[in-house]
Task: inverse folding
């Protein structure tokens, strides 16, 4: 997408049902792709060989692969929430329309919610590269067979004995199966295609229910399409992180956010879908690392074979043949006599230990470098996993976008709350229809956030300047909190407004009477009776003490902030509502 296109769009519940179904259908390819990947990885167990460097590579690889699978699974759930949200909001609209016009023309019927994956799938373990004597890795005996096929069992055993006495070589046996590693590398290239298709499909579907000539509508669409891939209102840009004065370095966690924009897309500017970017970059990074590992494994294997062949060649004069190894191969001569000479003690096979040590050293250095490159993929994956929107968050976002689209993003109150009647309230409020009006952001910032995302907000919505007192920077807000679901947010916010309707009326009267003391915003707080939990929160102080390990605590109040707007009826919007 670049600039908004012209034209108008008339969104209907039928269109939302269609979009919902097509979004839901993207879960199956995503689910199948990672299962196919894991099956492919399982076809080459233990192919990473042995040795300190190889084992380290295998350990890092498993961490990265498991983080990738975890993040991928969360993305599947996010897509499911979006699919359900569009059907839910269409159902609310259809039901409300039928209730308000019972004698009119026939009305559409609500649809069943799409069947989706709403919890992270259990995909099973990632097959380990570590050599555990299952199969895959190449023994020195295999290499010797390839290097000098047909030279005779006794010569082979003598050379094998000489080689295995080289400590450096013995420490990395068996060598990795370079062909198996190459096959794994190829397998890792495929998921990127699937996730890229999911992104383009989602964006295309949202465009069908967006009037791109309406800047607010278009901006909301862009925000939706970036949020499903992990952006947030408080997300960081790609600016350089201030250095920690204690270490003189950027904070460790900054490695996960560097180079990507984690803030919502807007109507203008380039787009950023960070989780998509992380997943595709991880596929490319693992692919590259495995191919490099395979190349290093083949190189050291070939060098070991060459050293072996040279040792046999050098031993040939002692066998009284006057021939070199290659000559014997080409001539197809029988080597039974050579075996007899060896048995009588006439042969000396001396492997070049220095050459072996140099080959092994070069191999291990290369593999450690490849493991280091692989490890750089972990921080972005952890940030992506942390940032993945929950099912509840995406359901709420889809309900909001759908509700606003059904009313052409007009600046007006609209009420389609299920199982409720606006006549039951002095000031009926539908949070889904309020979202975005005059900057209203309850759903975006306070619905369906995980404990980690609450801490993440305090981290990102801060000074960005670490100090000894505030190791991760001082947050600009006193706490970060979230309702569990849109349904809970709606119920508790409406209850707060109902409880404080007299206070709200007085505030409205002050504005309408022209009072100079009337506040532009009005905060009202409701203490929910009976000790009911309204949501969860992490305080600024808790974040100071524990950083990203800060734990959420239950809340028992609701704080709702109203913003004055004389063009609305009633003349305000719910700017935000949150547990506290």
Result:
């Amino acid at each position: 997408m670049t600039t908004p296109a012209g034209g108008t769009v008339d969104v209907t519940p039928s269109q939302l049902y269609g979009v919902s179904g097509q979004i839901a259908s993207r879960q199956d390819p995503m689910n199948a792709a990672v299962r196919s990947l894991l099956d492919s990885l399982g076809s080459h167990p233990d192919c990473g060989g042995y040795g300190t460097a190889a084992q380290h590579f295998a350990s890092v690889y498993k961490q990265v692969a498991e983080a990738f699978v975890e993040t991928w699974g969360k993305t599947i759930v996010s897509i499911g929430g979006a699919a359900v949200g569009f059907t839910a909001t269409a159902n609310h609209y259809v039901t409300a329309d039928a209730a308000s016009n019972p004698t009119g023309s026939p009305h559409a019927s609500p649809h069943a919610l799409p069947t989706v994956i709403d919890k992270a799938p259990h995909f099973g373990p990632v097959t380990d590269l570590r050599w555990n004597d299952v199969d895959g890795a190449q023994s020195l005996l295999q290499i010797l067979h390839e290097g000098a096929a047909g030279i005779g069992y006794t010569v082979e055993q003598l050379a094998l004995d000489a080689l295995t006495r080289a400590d450096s070589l013995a420490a990395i046996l068996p060598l990795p199966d370079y062909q198996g590693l190459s096959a794994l590398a190829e397998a890792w290239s495929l998921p990127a295609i699937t996730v890229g298709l999911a992104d383009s499909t989602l964006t295309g579907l949202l465009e069908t229910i967006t009037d791109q000539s309406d800047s607010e509508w278009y901006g909301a669409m862009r925000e939706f399409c970036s949020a499903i891939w992990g952006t947030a209102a408080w997300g960081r840009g790609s600016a350089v992180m201030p250095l920690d004065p204690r270490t003189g370095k950027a904070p460790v966690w900054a490695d996960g956010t560097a180079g990507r924009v984690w803030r919502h897309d807007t109507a203008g500017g380039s787009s950023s879908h960070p989780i998509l970017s992380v997943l595709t970059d991880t596929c490319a990074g693992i692919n590259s690392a495995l191919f490099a590992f395979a190349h290093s494994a083949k190189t050291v294997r070939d060098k070991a074979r060459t050293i072996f062949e040279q040792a046999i060649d050098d031993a040939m004069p002692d066998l009284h043949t006057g021939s070199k190894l290659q000559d014997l191969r080409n001539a197809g001569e029988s080597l039974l006599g050579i075996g007899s000479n060896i048995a009588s003690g006439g042969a000396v096979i001396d492997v070049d230990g220095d050459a072996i040590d140099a080959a092994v050293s070069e191999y291990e250095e290369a593999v450690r470098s490849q493991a280091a490159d692989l490890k750089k993929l972990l921080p972005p994956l952890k940030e992506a996993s942390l940032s993945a929107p929950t099912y509840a968050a995406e359901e709420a976002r889809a309900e909001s976008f759908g509700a606003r689209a059904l009313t052409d993003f007009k600046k007006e109150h609209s009420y389609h709350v299920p199982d409720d009647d606006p006549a039951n309230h002095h000031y009926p409020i539908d949070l889904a229809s309020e979202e975005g009006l005059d900057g209203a952001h309850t759903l975006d910032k306070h619905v369906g956030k995980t404990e980690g995302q609450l801490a993440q907000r305090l981290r990102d919505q801060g000074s960005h300047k670490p100090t000894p007192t505030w190791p991760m920077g001082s947050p600009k807000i006193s706490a970060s909190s979230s309702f569990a679901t849109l349904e809970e947010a709606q119920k508790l916010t409406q209850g707060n407004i109902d409880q404080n309707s007299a206070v709200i009326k007085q505030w409205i009267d002050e504005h309408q009477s022209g009072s100079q003391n009337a506040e532009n915003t009005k905060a009202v707080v409701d203490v929910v009776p009976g000790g009911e939990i309204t949501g969860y929160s992490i305080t600024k102080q808790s974040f100071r003490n524990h950083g990203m390990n800060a734990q959420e605590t239950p809340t028992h109040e609701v704080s709702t902030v109203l913003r004055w707007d004389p063009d609305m009826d009633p003349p305000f919007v719910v700017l935000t509502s949150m547990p506290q």
About this structure: Residues 1-6, 147-151, 319-323, 328-345 have pLDDT under 50 and may be disordered. The longest helix spans residues 52-100. The beta strands are 479-482, 521-527, 535-539, 553-555, 557-564, 572-579.
